[in-house]
Amino acid sequence: MHYSMIPAPAALQKYIKHFWVLEGNVAAPQTPSSFRTLADGTPGFIFQNRDRGTLYQFDKKLPGTFLYGQATRAASIQIEGDFDTVGIFFQPYGLKAIFGIDAGELTDDCQEFNPYQAAMNDSLAGILQAATSREVRIHRLISYIEEQIVRQRKKQDAAIMYAAEKIWMLKGNIDLHELRAELFLTERSFERKFKQYIGLPPKMFARIAKFQSSLHYLRTANFDKLSDIAYLHDYTDQSHFIRNFKEFAGCSPLQLQQLQETVMDSSVTGTL
């Protein structure tokens, strides 16, 4: 199974972290037939060539082309057939800012991308299915997203987009009361708007940002012991850190390092 990341054009980096492509024959020896997703603070998009294979999650058949929301837990996606998959990791506010979708409706869930398109050949899904290469698919996606951004730009809430960016930049270590005051928003308005744009309450999003930062340290082996990561990220102790890690990764730090399954999130993808 071969994975590659494709940077978003500069003009789209405010909305897209990067594109990714997953290709491979699962019948090949020692090739995994699934990949694990973690809580990574981002919604996204996935297209799977239906002529090559079908994706499943929790024994449920997934649409060939779909949007998914923020994840608050780990999950595994399996393939029946071969991977011929193109995906997008959006910025945390991507669903609302690009498509006008209330992000809270897709938290821990997904939605077929063209549910109301009767003529398949006229839909983006049909265009991607007919494309002859991953380069063509990504080009089509870029064009489509650029059009959507133009349509939604006047409706975008710059304050909430800024709030999400600041929480992520500070790795979740932020006083949310001060942030709310900076934006001149009441607690109720801030919570409501944030969930519409991000799909999560601000406090949960900050916890995931902190988890992702700790995961980076785990992956880069930039520590001597787990308690170093715990204290660096203001966890009470190592046990507190491990409990939070298990909540978002579905396993302990040691277990994640021992996984043979490919782990995919918006920061990095690979086998730890």
TrEMBL record:
InterPro entries in UniProt: AraC_XylS_family_regulators (IPR050204), DUF6597 (IPR046532), Homeodomain-like_sf (IPR009057), HTH_AraC (IPR018060)
PROSITE patterns: HTH_ARAC_FAMILY_2
Keywords assigned by UniProt, alphabetized: DNA-binding, Transcription, Transcription regulation
Domain (HTH araC/xylS-type) ranges: 139-259
UniProt keyword annotation of Transcription regulation present: yes
GO molecular function, one term: DNA-binding transcription factor activity
Protein name: AraC family transcriptional regulator
